[in-house]
Design a protein that fits this description.
Number of helices: 5
Shape: globular
Largest sheet: 2 strands, parallel
Strand order of the largest sheet: 1-4
Number of strands: 6
Order of helices and strands: HHHHHEEEEEE
Distance between the termini: 19 Å
Structural class: alpha/beta
Length: about 160
C-alpha cells in the first residue's frame, strides 16, 4: 500500500474538497466520450485501470460520506485518495497537487513504449541502472508472443 504521507498534510477542511475533486475526475474519465475535449485525457485507461477506477469511485463516494477527522485517521482511505490521484496523474499526464502539500516534482521523466508482434528473450520497455526516487518512470511492452521474460520497467538500483 502506498504511504499517503502528503495527503495526511492536508487540513481537515481540505479532505472533502480533495475527495470531491478526485471523485469528479474519476467519474469524468469513466463517463467521458473520446470526443470530449474539456479535460484532455492523454492516455485511455486500460481495462485493468478502468476496473480500478470503478472500484475507487465507490471507495471515494464512501470517503465523502464520512467525517473528515475519521478519514484523516484511516490509512486505507488516504491510500485510496492517493491511488486515485496517481492514476489520474498517469492518464492526464500532469501532477496534481493540493494546497498544504509539499510534493517534490519528479526531476526525471522516462517513458518507454515497445509494440511489436514477437518479443525476444528478456525484452524491456525501459531498462535503467541507477534511478533516483525523484524520477517518474513508465514502461509499456505490448506483443502477441514472448520468447522469454518481459519487463515494462527494469531498474537495477533505486536511491
Amino acid at each position: 500500500m502506498p504511504e499517503p504521507i502528503t495527503l495526511a498534510a492536508i487540513s481537515l477542511a481540505g479532505i472533502p474538497v480533495v475527495a470531491t475533486f478526485l471523485l469528479d475526475r474519476v467519474g469524468y474519465i469513466l463517463d467521458r466520450r473520446r470526443e470530449d475535449r474539456d479535460l484532455p485525457v492523454v492516455r485511455e485507461p486500460s481495462p485493468q485501470q478502468r476496473d480500478e477506477l470503478e472500484e475507487l469511485q465507490g471507495t471515494l463516494s464512501g470517503v465523502l460520506a464520512r467525517p473528515a477527522d475519521e478519514v484523516m485517521a484511516d490509512a486505507d482511505a488516504l491510500a485510496a485518495l492517493d491511488r486515485a490521484r496517481t492514476l489520474l496523474e498517469h492518464l492526464l499526464d500532469r501532477q496534481i497537487d493540493f494546497e498544504g502539500e509539499r510534493r517534490a516534482r519528479p526531476k526525471h521523466r522516462v517513458r518507454g513504449v515497445v509494440e511489436v508482434e514477437e518479443l525476444g528473450d528478456n525484452a524491456a520497455g525501459v531498462r535503467l541502472g541507477d534511478v533516483r526516487a525523484s524520477s517518474n518512470v513508465e514502461g509499456i511492452v505490448k506483443g502477441k508472443s514472448a520468447q522469454g521474460p518481459t519487463y515494462g520497467v527494469q531498474i537495477d538500483s533505486l536511491e
